Amino acid sequence: MDLATALAGFQDALTFYNLLFVLAGVVLGQVVGAMPGIGPIMTMAIAIPFTFVLDPLPAIGFLVGVNKGGLVGGAIPAILINTPGTPDAAATALDGHPMAQKGKPLKALKMALFSSVSGDTFSDLVLITISAPLAVIALQMGPVEIFSVMVFAFAVISGMIGRSVAKGIFATALGLFCATVGLDPQFSTPRLIFGHIDLYNGFPIAAVAIGSLAVSEIFTRTGTPGIAGRPAVFIPKNQPASDRGVSLKEFLSCKMILLRGALIGTTIGAIPGMGSTAAAFMSYASAKQSSDQPETFGKGNIKGIAATESANSSVAGADFIPLLTLGLPGSASAALLISAFLIQGIQPGPLLFEEQGQLIYGLFGAMVMANAMNLFAGLFGLRMWARIAAAPSSIVFATALVLCFTGVYLSSGGYFAVVVMLMFAVLGLVMTALGYPVVVFIIAFFLGPRFELSLGQTATILRGDVTRLTNHPVALAFLALSLFVVYWLGVRGRKQTNPSVVKSLKEASK
Q1: Among 234, 296, 387, 486, which one has the highest count of C-beta atoms within 10 angstroms of its own C-beta?
Q2: Which of 69, 141, 126, 73 is closest to 320 using CA atoms?
Q3: Per-residue pLDDT averaged across 131-157, rounded?
Q4: 392 forms bridges with which residues in the sheet?
């Protein structure tokens, strides 16, 4: 690949015609990302057939813009009304919504925007410069290693989200169990369908996520006495500038968290099958664990927003590493982009850089421009979304509920998905009331099929002999780290709290 080809590709991307399609994709992505139940994945799936009439570069650039804009848009309802627009934005809600409740919604939204663009830009630069070496590393991650990485992710998430490791593990197990409904990913054997043909493909992902996270939260909020006339988000009048924006000093104070989140997201994105949701929560857990004030996380800590948004957005660029070099999709959006490539007569794989070098570097240029457009479009639209959320709660939550019903019905194609959504909304209410982390349940449900497939492949490779793990040192390292994390967050954490409990009991007895 010579420099002239790369420069020609970037020059193609900077034409007004191509930039117009990228901008349209970004704006559309932000809008649909902010609508719970619809999201960029569904929008990309609908738009792909219409891109057939376009040239390859504007067609792919438009879809990339939708995906990138959706990452920013998903954080908007997560912060404003605690209803994630996309699954990975559930981690952003942990600190974003408490900050909005403190009267700082614009500050939280801007931090999410800046962090998202920073992480996305970082992963794009990695993609452009060292995509081939990273793809080689990802290729070395076989089923055994993927299985161990997922076990480690579950251990971290179970311990960091919620107040009890035991309840976190239970929520993980429940999510994995619900993911077993439908056809076995290895042998396509139907399980737990009880004669219902609608369950052959399992519970619809959108219905489960929106029901347990969004609808249950809407039911909880609307059930609060006297909330109907109050605004969903309160923005104080004469608010100081420091509460409406993010200063350069505040942003730079998060630089290490942003870098760590971007590194986590880029690594996860380069490994097919993990996804942005796992990256967001692993980054959040890492930021909380390394913080001097971990107790402030979940109560409106701006660093929690920086950690999650930098990680989940950096997956978007890293997803292209296995897609372009190996032809392997790393996520649902990447799988859709592969179909878009094929529609244009382009076969992703090792020969792509040689056969379509100018097009690929044109795509890289479109991705970089999409990040800049994401920033400016986001700054323009955030105030509008904050004003909308400042409307009376009865209007905001009723509208959000209608969008949830509409999005689930359209994305899953029927009333069955709506019924499933309501069932899991009840489950979400029960789990929240009993102190079980719903978010952990959702992550386990999302990763369930991939986890089960990796488990089956691992059992086949090891032939039932655990000692064969010695041939997989990377897998052994991650499994050992998983045990350490459970001990550190569970047993050690309980020991640390016992002295304070004993002291409180002694003082009470006096």
Answers
A1: 486
A2: 126
A3: 72
A4: 231
- CA–CA separation, 42 and 205 (whole Å): 12
Q: Give the DSSP H/E element, type plus range, for residue 460.
A: helix 438-462
Q: Pick the closest to residue 118 from 282, 283, 2 (CA basis).
A: 283
Non-local (6+) Cβ contacts of 373 within 8 A are 19, 22, 23, 26, 65
Closest by alpha carbon to 276, among 489, 127, 120, 438? 120
Q: What are the CA-CA distances from residue 370 to residues 66, 156, 215, 411 (Å)?
A: 9, 33, 32, 26
Residue with tokens 């002295």: 499
Q: Mean pLDDT throughout 326-350? A: 69
Which pLDDT does position 274 carry in this prediction?
61
Average pLDDT of span 266-289: 77
| Owner of token pair 């001097």 | 292
Taken in order 486, 488, 489, 491, the sign of the CA dihedral is positive
User: What per-residue confidence (pLDDT) applies to 392?
Assistant: 66
Cβ-based neighbour number of residue 159 at 10 Å: 24
105 conformational bin, left if phi > 0, alpha if psi -120 to 50, beta if neither: alpha
Q: What is the dihedral of CA 30, 33, 34, 38, to 10 degrees?
A: 140
Is the pTM value of this prediction over 0.70? no
- 3-state SS string for 211-273: HHHHHHHHHHHHCCCCCCCCECCCCCCCCCHHHHCCCHHHHHHCHHHHHHHHHHHHHHHCCCC
Q: Coil, strand or helix: which one is 182?
A: strand
- Helix, strand, coil share (%) of the chain residues, nearest 5: 80, 0, 20
